[in-house]
Specification:
Chain A is mostly beta strands and 114 residues long. Helix content of chain A is 4%, strand content 38%. In chain A, the strands form two sheets. Chain A has a six-stranded antiparallel β-sheet. Chain A has a four-stranded antiparallel β-sheet with strand order 5-6-7-8, with no helix packed on it. In chain B, 29% of the residues lie in helices and 22% in strands. Chain B is built from 17 helices and 22 strands. Chain B has 444 residues and is an alpha+beta fold. In chain B, strands 13, 14, 15, 16, 17, 18, 19, 20 and 22 form a nine-stranded antiparallel β-sheet that branches. The chains are: A mainly beta (114), B alpha+beta (444).
C-alpha cells in the first residue's frame, strides 16, 4: 500500500462516544481487517485491528478504560497504544494503526505504526 | 451401530422418567368453601416442586418495570419461580427475557443484577450470546462435530412478555390467556396506583432484596386478603406514626372498607373513606384529589388509591399508598426472597419523589417499621410448621365466609375489609392449578 501523506478521513471525533468505539469497514481503510476507532475517557483516539485475536468479536463493541480496550465477548485486554495483548484468553497482539485528529476529524494511516 | 447413534445426543432424545415429577392431588389440603387449610402446603417439598411446575411455570409472573429498560442492552436479572431469567431490551427496543443458564454447562450467562451490555458471556467456558439470545461465540468451535449448529443452542426465550401499565410480566406458558384477561377486574384496582398520572410511573433507585424464613404463600396471601393483622401486628408502628400527644384513635382501629375477591386468585383490600389520603404530608399536598376523582372516579379515590394491599396471583404484591411493588421469590418451601421496587408518578417533582421514597423506606423498606412486623409473623409461622402435631392441625380462614357479593361500587366480587375471602380465593386458584396438568405435561 502506498504511503498516505494526509491519511484517510474516516470519522468525526463526535462520531465516537467517550469510552466506546466504532468500526471502520475494511473497504474504506483498505486493510486486511476492519479498524476499530477507540476513544478513551480523556478523549484520546486510537486505532486497532477490530477483530479480537481470540475469537470473532469486534473490539469496537468493547469497553475502553484505563488505557485498554476490553473485548466484549471474553474480556481479553489490549493496549490502546500498541495493540499488545494484556489479558487472557487472547494470547496474540492486534495491529495498531496511526491516526491524526485535525479539526475534529479523524485521519487514519493504515498499517503505519502509531 | 446406526448412524444416528454416532451423533451427539440432542435434547429431544433425552427422556425424563415421569417418576421424577410425581403429582399429588391437593383436593384434601384446601377447603376454600369451609375456610380450612392443611399446613402441609407450606412445608412439603414434593408439593413445593409441584408448585414450581404447575403454579409458577404456567402463570404470568412479574419481571420488572418498563422504566428499567431505556436503551438496547439494558438488562435486569430476576427469577420466575426458581428459574433465573435475564430481562433485556433488544436492538429493536423490544423487551425480551431469556433463561439465565448457559446451554453448555448451565452456569448463568449474566451474573450482574442490572446494567447495560452488548452480549451475555458465560464465565465458565466463554459461550457468548447476543441480545436476541443467539449463540454467537463458542471458543474451540472446531472441536465440535459437524452436526453442531449454533442456532440449536441459543438461550431459551420466555415465549410471552406483556406489559400492563408499565409492569412487565412474562410466562413460560406457550399458549397463555392474554395478561389483561388474566388480570380481569384486578386491572381496575391496579390502575388506582398505575394510572394516577397520564405520564405513568417510574422506578426510584434500585431494587431492595432480602431473605426471609417463610413460605412465599404466607406473604402473597397476606397482601391479597389480610387487613385483620394491622391493628395487632403493627400496633407499635401505628403508635410511632401517631402524634405524640394523642391517644390511639378509634377511627384508625375501626376502619371499614372492601376486599376484592378474584376468581383468578388475585386480591385487594382497602379502607373506604371520602378523606382517604397519602401518608407522607408533602405527597398528600402534591396530589390534586379533585383531578384524581375526575381521572379515576370517586370509588377508586375513596378506596384502593391510597391505604391498602394487593396481590396479583401468584407472587406479585403491591402497596398503592407508597408505591411499593414486591415479588415473593420462592426459595424452597421454607424460604423466600423479597424483592421490592419503589415507584412514583413520573410527573412528581424531585422533592416529592424523595418524600415518597423516604416514607416507603421508613414503613415498608427492608428495615421499615411495618415490614419488620410482617416478616416476623411469616418467619414465626414457618419456624414451627414442621412439628408433626403442629403440621397436622388445620388453619382457619373462615372470616367473612359467604360475604362475597357485588357491592355496586367496586368491580367484581367484594367482601369486607376484615375478611379472609380473597385468601380463600387465592388458595382455590392455587388448588385448581395444582390439580391441573400444565402445558409441559401435555407436550409429547
Amino acid at each position: 500500500m502506498p504511503q498516505q501523506t494526509l491519511g484517510i478521513r474516516v470519522a468525526s471525533v463526535t462520531d465516537i462516544p467517550p469510552g466506546e468505539g466504532i468500526a471502520i469497514d475494511k473497504s474504506i481503510t483498505g486493510t486486511a481487517d476492519n479498524i476499530a476507532l477507540l476513544r478513551d475517557e480523556d478523549d484520546r483516539i486510537y486505532a486497532l485491528d477490530d477483530t479480537c485475536s481470540h475469537e470473532d468479536a469486534s473490539l469496537a463493541d468493547g469497553w475502553v478504560e484505563g488505557g485498554y480496550v476490553e473485548c466484549p465477548l471474553h474480556a481479553s485486554k489490549f493496549c490502546l497504544k500498541t495493540g499488545e495483548v494484556q489479558g487472557l484468553p487472547a494470547t496474540r497482539d492486534v495491529c495498531p494503526h496511526r491516526i491524526e485528529v485535525r479539526d475534529g476529524a479523524v485521519y487514519l494511516f493504515p498499517n503505519e505504526a502509531p | 451401530m446406526t448412524r444416528s447413534l454416532d451423533r451427539p445426543a440432542a435434547p429431544s432424545r433425552l427422556r425424563r422418567p415421569p417418576e421424577l415429577a410425581p403429582n399429588l392431588d391437593v383436593s384434601g389440603l384446601v377447603d376454600a368453601h369451609g375456610g380450612l387449610l392443611d399446613r402441609a402446603i407450606f412445608t412439603d417439598t414434593a408439593l413445593y416442586r409441584q408448585e414450581l411446575r404447575r403454579v409458577f411455570a404456567p402463570s404470568w409472573l412479574f419481571l420488572a418495570h418498563i422504566d428499567q429498560f431505556q436503551k438496547p442492552g439494558d438488562f435486569f436479572t430476576t427469577y420466575m419461580g426458581e428459574d433465573p431469567v435475564i430481562v433485556t431490551m433488544d436492538r429493536n427496543r423490544q423487551v425480551r427475557a431469556y433463561l439465565n443458564s448457559c446451554r453448555h454447562r448451565g452456569a448463568r450467562v449474566c451474573r450482574a443484577d442490572f446494567g447495560t451490555t452488548k452480549n451475555f458471556t458465560c464465565t465458565y467456558h466463554g459461550w457468548a450470546y447476543d441480545l436476541d439470545g443467539g449463540l454467537t461465540s463458542v471458543p474451540n468451535r472446531d472441536g465440535y462435530p459437524e452436526s453442531f449448529e449454533s442456532r440449536d443452542w441459543g438461550l431459551l426465550e420466555v415465549p410471552h412478555i406483556e406489559t400492563y401499565g408499565g409492569l412487565v410480566f412474562g410466562t413460560w406458558n406457550p399458549d397463555p390467556l392474554p395478561l389483561r384477561d388474566e388480570l380481569g377486574d384486578m386491572a381496575w384496582y391496579l390502575d388506582a396506583m398505575l394510572d394516577r398520572d397520564p405520564e405513568g410511573t417510574v422506578v426510584v433507585g434500585g431494587v431492595h432484596k432480602w431473605v426471609l424464613e417463610g413460605n412465599w404463600k404466607l406473604a402473597a396471601e397476606q397482601f391479597a386478603t389480610d387487613w385483620y393483622h394491622v391493628n395487632m401486628s403493627h400496633a407499635s408502628a401505628l403508635m410511632v406514626l401517631s402524634p405524640a400527644d394523642k391517644r390511639p384513635r378509634e377511627e384508625i382501629v375501626h376502619r371499614t372498607g372492601r376486599q376484592y375477591v378474584s376468581p383468578q386468585g388475585h386480591g385487594a383490600g382497602f379502607p373506604v373513606h371520602p378523606k382517604n389520603r397519602f401518608n407522607a404530608q408533602s405527597v398528600h399536598e402534591w396530589y390534586d384529589y379533585a383531578a384524581l376523582r375526575e381521572r379515576l372516579g370517586d370509588a377508586r379515590v375513596e378506596g384502593p388509591l391510597t391505604d391498602g394491599h394487593a396481590t396479583v396471583f401468584p407472587n406479585f404484591s403491591y402497596l398503592p399508598v407508597i408505591g411499593s411493588l414486591r415479588v415473593w421469590h420462592p426459595k424452597g418451601p421454607d424460604r423466600m426472597e423479597v424483592w421490592a421496587w419503589t415507584i412514583v408518578d413520573k410527573s412528581m417533582p424531585p422533592e416529592i419523589r424523595e418524600a415518597q421514597r423516604l416514607y416507603n423506606l421508613r414503613t415498608f423498606g427492608p428495615s421499615g417499621v411495618f415490614e419488620q412486623d410482617d416478616g416476623e409473623n411469616w418467619s414465626e409461622v414457618q419456624a414451627i410448621s414442621h412439628g408433626f402435631i403442629t403440621n397436622g392441625l388445620p388453619l382457619n380462614y373462615q372470616m367473612g365466609l359467604g360475604s362475597e357479593r357485588e357491592d355496586g361500587r367496586h368491580p367484581g366480587l367484594t367482601s369486607e375489609l376484615y375478611s379472609d375471602a380473597a385468601g380463600r380465593a387465592f388458595y382455590a386458584r392455587w388448588k385448581e392449578l395444582m390439580n391441573t396438568p400444565a402445558w409441559h405435561e401435555k407436550e409429547r
